[in-house]
Amino acid sequence: MKTNRILTVTLNPALDRIVRSGKTTIFPGGKGVNVSRALKALGLVSMPLIAIAGTSGRRLSGQLRDEGLPPVLFILRGKTRTNTTTIHRNGMVTRIFESGPVWAREDVMRFKKFFASQILGARIVIFSGSLPVGVPSSFYRSLIGVAKRAGAQTFLDTSADALGEGIKAKPFLIKPNQEEAEAFLKCRLSSQRLVKKGLRSFLKRGMKMVLLTLGEAGLVITQGEEFLWARGPKVKGHTVGCGDAALAGCVAGMMAQDRLEDQIRLAAACGAEAARSIKPGAISKKGVQRMAGRVRVKQF
Ligand SMILES: Nc1ncnc2c1ncn2[C@@H]1O[C@H](COP(=O)(O)OP(=O)(O)OP(=O)(O)O)[C@@H](O)[C@H]1O
Ligand SMILES: [Mg+2]
Q1: Tens of pLDDT along 44-102?
Q2: Could you tell me the distance, in angstroms and rounded to a whole number, from the CA of residue 214 to the centre of ligand 1?
Q3: Is position 76 within any domain?
Q4: For residue 293, is it within any domain?
């Protein structure tokens, strides 16, 4: 039976620590977590599946529960990472990322079984972020295979080898940003013609849809028939997590069976709106609706 169950998968989540004007705030982070947060703002329930370790991991899951995003946990040894962003008085930003728990071979095997038990009945599974240390670069490829065999639509947002390998499993949709797409295609996406060529080259590899985000230049989407480019107003703000919010908007548009044009409008509005908040993926439905009115969509 088809359900509306959405699962986000974050293998290496983090406590995001923001230091600004001597004040520190800590909140749950990780790309799939950000997608779940944005989906919730759009009125969609999703289940964040996260791998955590130690007291920092327990803190992260507790905070997620408090946010109304109760996670499903996969427990590891070690300690969930804390990523620190310092916003200096002059506007300069420094970011220090930790690497997170190192996975043993046995963890990789154990996760695969755990994942298979969790995705039963899922309609959409979203894989977001880099792979933890110790996890083979083919891991998303293998998880996408499991999810597809269970009848779920799969979305992949990752980079480098994890993206290259993941694509081999032909996920339903990939969401590279410009840098990730250029690295994969070994080609600059510096004109509309090259962007279109790049999208075609992705589609040839078997994905049904590609959502390519281009920072403040907006985003493009294709399902092979239409090629649409959406551009919202430029926002001076915090762009970390804009891609996650854009992906959530695209998923929400799809769930509502919107036309492609409206799907991409919503995705662009979510991306731009996310830049207004320091907390990744923290958008408001009202803000998104306002922003959507300022998004222009064209065929190219
Ligand atoms: N400064 C900005 N002003 C307006 N909209 C923006 C801005 N930055 C990003 N966006 C919107 O958000 C979308 C996603 O941004 P971007 O391409 O930077 O994703 P990303 O690099 O994958 O981000 P992340 O991985 O941190 O979530 C863009 O396609 C655009 O619609
Ligand atoms: Mg991204």
Answers
A1: 999 999 999 999 999 999 999 999 999 999 999 999 999 998 988 888 889 899 999 99
A2: 7
A3: no
A4: yes
In this predicted model, what pLDDT tens digit does every residue of 251-293 receive, in sequence order?
999 999 889 999 999 999 999 999 999 889 999 999 999 999 9
Nearest residue (CA) to ligand 1, atom 20: 243
The CATH code of the domain that includes 281 is: 3.40.1190.20
Tell me which residue range forms the domain holding 40: 5-12+31-50+105-299
Mean pLDDT, residues 209-237: 96
Using the mean position of ligand 1's atoms as its centre, give its distance from the Cα of residue 129 in Å.
Answer: 15
Cα–Cα distance measured from residue 137 to residue 50, given in angstroms and rounded to the nearest whole number: 18
Cα 73 to averaged position of ligand 1 atoms, centre (Å): 29
Domain count, the chain: 1
Instruction: Answer yes or no: is 100 within a domain.
Output: no
Closest ligand to the CA of 243: 1
> Is 152 part of a structural domain of the chain?
yes
Q: Report the atom number in ligand 1 closest to the C-alpha of 31.
A: 27
Q: For residue 230, give the ligand 1 atom closest to its CA.
A: 31
Q: Which of 180, 221, 239, 244 to mutate to test the pocket of ligand 1 (most atoms within 8 A of CB)?
A: 239
